[in-house]
Amino acid sequence: MEPRPMMRRRSATEVAPAAVDTSEGAKPPKGTPPRSASRDSELTKLRPSSGRKPSVARHERGEGVRSKGERNAGTKGERDLHSKSRCLGSRGRGRRTAAASASRPTASADMPLVVGVSTRALFDLKEEHAVFVRDGEDAYSALQRRREAKTPRPGCAFELVRRLLALNPPGGPTLVEVVLLSHNSPDLALRAFRSCERNGLAISEGSFTAGRPIAPILAAWGVDLFLSKDNDDVRAAVEAGTAAARLGPVPPARRPENSDAVHFALDGDAVTFGAESEVIFREQGLEAFERHERRSARTPLTRGPFGGALLHKLIELRRRCLRSDGTSRVRVSMVTARAAPAHERVVRTLRSWDTLFDEVHFVGHRVKAPFLAACGAHIFFDDRKAHVEAASRLVPAGPVPGLPSPQRHEDAKPR
Question: Looking at 221, 246, 271, which one is the last position of a domain?
Answer without folding.
Answer: 246
